[in-house]
């Protein structure tokens, strides 16, 4: 249940201090202590990640979880890895971000009419949260959406995010379609005041193979703006 007089500051403080999932806590902290050679000497965030962006946003981008050596290192969602390069590059071309790069949390990136979050807030081993970890974390996305009053389009990056957003909406007592709408790139589904919009995740697995191209991602953000 959403606390009375909730605020984004209160929510973010609770997210950052969360230690509810022992496996995720152990993993994110182990990576921070013993990172790959290319990141040795950097000061890792090593904690759960709050969302960030424009609190008046109509478009909310929802990913799977922070990357172990991306957001878990920099302290900002999708920042410091190849997925973020693709995401913020597309958001910049769509007029939703003031710059196309995402190097660190203090690089001056600002979002307009967009907010970025994730279903799970800790970096998971092999990028695979368990169902129990997902369900534990959904409560934060429930509260976050409640604090984004203008949110209209929920842009889900990947099938995990699509499923997680549907679970989030049901937890928030939003009526969702039955049967469950299937995820696909460009898939759309209405649920209460929201429209879910699906996109393949901008992971290297998808971008290196051509499963997701810049043109496809640009078209998705164009559609998101139309729906918003």
- Which structural class fits the helix and strand makeup? alpha/beta
- Helical content (DSSP H or I, runs of 4+): 25-40%
Question: What is the overall pLDDT average?
Answer: 96
Query: Can you summarize the main beta sheet?
Result: 6 strands, mixed
Could you tell me the number of beta strands?
A: 6
Quickly count the domains: 1
* CATH class annotation: Alpha Beta
CATH fold descriptor: Uracil-DNA Glycosylase, subunit E
H/E element sequence: HHEEHHEHEHEEHH
Strand order of the largest sheet: 1-3-2-4-6-5
* Distance between the first and last residues' Cα: 27 Å
CATH homologous superfamily title: Uracil-DNA glycosylase-like domain
Q: What's the Cα radius of gyration? A: 16 Å
Low-confidence stretches: none
Strand content: 5-15%
How many distinct helices?
8
CATH architecture grouping: 3-Layer(aba) Sandwich
Task: Tell me the overall shape.
Answer: globular
């Amino acid at each position: 249940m959403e606390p009375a007089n909730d605020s984004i500051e209160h929510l973010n403080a609770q997210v950052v201090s969360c230690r509810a999932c022992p496996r995720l806590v152990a993993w994110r902290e182990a990576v921070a202590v013993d990172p790959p050679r290319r990141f040795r000497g950097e000061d890792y965030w090593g904690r759960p990640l709050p969302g960030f962006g424009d609190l008046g946003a109509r478009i909310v981008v929802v990913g799977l979880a922070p990357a172990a050596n991306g957001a878990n290192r920099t302290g900002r969602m999708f920042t410091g890895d190849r997925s973020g390069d693709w995401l913020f590059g597309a958001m910049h071309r769509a007029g939703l971000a003031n710059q196309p790069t995402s190097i660190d949390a203090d690089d001056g990136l600002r979002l307009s009419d967009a907010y970025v979050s994730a279903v799970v807030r800790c970096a998971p081993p092999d990028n695979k949260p368990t169902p129990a970890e997902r369900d534990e974390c959904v409560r934060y996305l429930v509260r976050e959406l409640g604090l984004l009053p203008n949110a209209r389009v929920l842009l889900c990056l990947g099938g995990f995010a699509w499923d997680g957003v549907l679970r989030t909406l049901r937890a928030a007592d939003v009526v969702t379609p039955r049967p469950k709408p299937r995820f696909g790139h460009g898939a759309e589904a209405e649920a209460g005041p929201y429209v879910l919009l699906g996109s393949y995740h901008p992971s290297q697995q998808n971008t290196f193979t051509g499963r997701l191209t810049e043109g496809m991602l640009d078209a998705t953000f164009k559609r998101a703006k139309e729906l918003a």
